[in-house]
Amino acid sequence: MKKYILLSLLSFVFWVTNAQKSDIAPQDLNGIRAIGSPANPKVKMAWDSYHDYAQVTQLGRDLVKAYPNLVKMESVGKSYEGRDIWVLTISDFNSGEVENKPGFYIDGGIHANEMQGVEVAMYTAWYLAESFQTIKFINTLLKEKVFYIVMTISPDGRENFIYKSNNSNTSRSGMRPFDNDGDGLVNEDKLDDLDNDGHIVMMRRKSKTGRWKVDTKYPTRMYQVKGDEIGEYEMLGYEGVDNDKDGLVNEDLIGTYDPNRDWGWNWQPNYVQNGALFYPGTLPETRAIKAFIVNHPNIAGAQSYHNFGGMFLRGPGAAEDDALFSSQDIEVYDNIGKLGEKMIPGYNYFVIHKDLYTVYGGEIDFLSLTRGIFTFSNELMTSYKLFNQKSTAGRWDNDEFNEFDKYLLFGDGYLEWKTFNHPQFGDIEIGGPKKNYIRNHPGFMIQEDAHRNMAFSLYHAYQTPKLEIIGIETEKLSGDLVAVTATVMNTRIIPTHSLHDVKNKIERPNYISLTGSAVVAGMTVQNEDLNLFTEQKFTPETIAVPNIEGMGNVKVRWIVKGNPSGATVKVSSAKGGTVSDKIK
Ligand SMILES: [Ca+2]
Ligand SMILES: [Ca+2]
Ligand SMILES: [Ca+2]
Ligand SMILES: [Ca+2]
Ligand SMILES: [Zn+2]
């Protein structure tokens, strides 16, 4: 009897270990699993808070540990303060070399106060790894593509935003000191957290000539009086004192430069483009990412997450570059951007300089115009998300954030006004929105928007070129000559080269080669019915094809001596990957 119990116990243990070994965890099969999400992830994460640098790093390490065949983590360089800028390479390492797969680049949080970009990038890395075994689409995607995810591109600024006193607009940049007011001193008059609560809020003072009043409906909200209405308060800006007694308050803050004006396309100096530094690539963070992008010519699509406004932005950043976006390339952007508007209600597909503002030396232009990469930048969060309806006023003018705060956040979004005795302004009051409200999603909304934005980028990544040799035909000619004709199709909507790339010869052409057969002549078929060919006299065995359009195809033909059966046709494309087939 004892033996029997032991045996059945052993077989139970055996069954359990076996079940754990299988690709799909039993908990994921039914019951608690919600469709589209891993129920039993190896790396446990909660997506209702923002993560600091140590936690971002830890997620990368945990994913590498749990999924060594899917995730690799490297440092692309150091930030100004010496933090590693991590890039996660995510792909199925068991199916082909990653360098030979179309790549998709993602980064988040170049503007450090725009916190959720980092969370979307982290969520994407986590979701891809955790869903590889359960969701067929993700499985195929990681077999065919490689993702390069820089979770936080400005780690110093993010640490500052989290651990130091800030408002929702600081710190937008990194920590490099800069003399903003030209007095020979750096960071000499920073924001001052008067009550030391971590939030830099507004200062107001009672005034008979003031043009501001308290909104009786939402007492933390101030509004500007109009016409002949008498005001009650004057506004004195963000919490601060004149530290260096130069008659200005908060005039030399930490990091007022803009890392998204430091890139090498249409860069302009600071007097034209506010926030630019000394030359394109002044910052170590920018230089590290540029080198990474240039060293990965397989990157065919890219996404850089920002906030605020609910937008899918494409270039150019400046009107004078409009002509560089051909109708052919715009059609690709339209296809992806318009679907995005359906995938994320409240988000709009826009052009940076037309619908937002002019940006010189921006990262999006660097990616799309210097490197020929089809790039979107999503501006995360919009007031549409509050009540699923379009706002009638701008972010700072409407009272929807106050209403949302009252009924859905129970007052957690704002600090009530309180008195303070200021060394220069006397009796004032301080209050207003917390640093992590307005621009950044409230906790319960982070995951849904992360998922929707990830889905948009996965669709974008899916549409990077996929090359297939759809047919190889042989035809006996006179003597021992044989014509070999190969048809190569791109079955996705992104071409191997943007038209801008082709015109400027940014990336090498695609090569279609025939090996294992004596090639006498090689040519591109222009029109088979009308017998139009373009012969390539130099290296006829390797035909250079400048572009294979989205959903388009090319035909190449070789004239060979003798029976070509067993010879190999190979397509090699920097952004379209490699594929080969043998002649039967
Ligand atoms: Ca100064
Ligand atoms: Ca404060
Ligand atoms: Ca000063
Ligand atoms: Ca000052
Ligand atoms: Zn931004």
TrEMBL record:
Coiled-coil-forming residues are none
Any one Pfam family here would be Peptidase_M14
The Swiss-Prot or TrEMBL record lists the needed cofactor(s) as:
Zn(2+)
What's an example Gene Ontology biological process for this entry?
Answer: proteolysis
- What does the entry list under GO cellular component? extracellular space
Instruction: Keyword check for Signal, yes or no.
Output: yes
Q: Which organism is it from?
A: Flavobacterium rhamnosiphilum
**Lineage, please?**
Bacteria, Pseudomonadati, Bacteroidota, Flavobacteriia, Flavobacteriales
Give the positions the UniProt entry annotates as the active site: 379
**Signal sequence bounds:** 1-19
Domain Peptidase M14, residue spans = 49-399
- On whether Signal is a keyword of this UniProt record, the answer is yes
> Which molecular function term from Gene Ontology is one that the record holds?
zinc ion binding
Q: Which CDD domains match?
A: M14-like (cd06905)
State the family named in the UniProt similarity comment for this chain: Belongs to the peptidase M14 family.
> Looking at the record's lineage, which domain of life comes first?
Bacteria
**Stated name of the protein:** Peptidase M14
Q: Which UniProt keywords apply?
A: Hydrolase, Metalloprotease, Protease, Signal, Zinc
